[in-house]
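So, is this right?
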Amino acid sequence: MSTVSTSVPADLSMVERSAYRKVDLRIAAVLFGCFVLSFIDRVNISFAHLQMRQDIGLTDGQYGFAIGLLFFSYVLFEVPSNLLMVRIGARKTLSRIMILWGIVSTLTFAVQTPAHLYVARLALGAAEAGFFPGALLFFTHWYPAKRRARVIGIFALAVPVSGFVGGPLSGWILHAMNDVGGMHAWRWLFVIEGIPSIIVGALLYFFLTERPADACWLTDAEKTLITGALAAEQLAKGGDAASHRFGVALKTPRLYIAALVYTAVPWVANVITYWSPAIIRQAGAANVFNVGLFSMIPYAIGAVCMLLICRSSDMRLERRWHWAACGTLAAISLVALTFVMNDLTLTLTAITFMTIGFLGIAALFFTIPLAYLSGTAAAGGLAMISALGQLAGSLAPMVIGQVKQHTGSVAGGLYVVAAVVMAAVLIVLLLIPAQSLHERR
């Protein structure tokens, strides 16, 4: 009897490790690669504008406005996209999104005026809408809550990886491709970085598997283990089917509290992705290629720290204090950056700590609403939270752009971002109780 009782847990452990190793490779790793391409295509304008502003007559205020426009169209289409995914599946939805954003990003090479850029950014936001919350929803079809911070952390790792890869690539394109074929380098940047998304999006349709029960690459034991873990989680959430509908979720105050908290994520993201190249250049980087190389440093260090933070959060099954600590670090770094922007080393140090904090709050955030949303409520709720947060976040680049245009410095805008982040930290600690997240206390 003792032999049986000790061997069964060991066997189950081996099956579990094997199952999730396969899921990591076939689901998490694939969507990770897609998100890398997505983020490169979204933020490559931060490098392109270093040259394109002279060609199309773009002011700092217009640049900030163009960045913010993406989020308005993103918001309009995000909830419908996620609800449609529930009906037609992840393969069709995520593939369609990738192909469309790749086409729009590539065609941005043709803009001639600020107005053209506004249209391009609106189109990119509409095309990309739904990818991030759709991928998060897709993870809930494969991973139970105890594994979710880790996998979302891996997925969010695409942000630093895109900076690590996209920064030097964008810098090299701007440095080496000018007047090749009679076209300016910033135009080549959009073409070279947009086409891969079209190709990968077409392949994605044939590669993804909708649910564990459909996975021919899992054994029967592995399918049973994963579906059983997900079913047990649904029972633990409690409530009847109606409580998991989107309409019911819309009446839940904590949905809007979560959206208010999420505002901090795009506010900090906008500083890092859209303004840090210009800040690094101003601090003393010799040329755009060096800007790309220096931009690797915060992302490389931030990526390692983010994985450690997510691991700690999963091991302790604690979200709120981990999130609050990361948010506080980001806010302090934003303020510190305003005092050191004339020193390249100190600027990179401040941006690195800011990136660590940002990646922490970005990776951990969606473990919070996923703890109490499921079914259609999760599909629409995640999209609604993301949409509302992104809508509020769209103000960040506009505020920073206008401040820089009128004062010659981004410092005032950074103070506003820091205040938004600290307000979100207080909301998490005061208005989201630990018991609602099923945390260990």
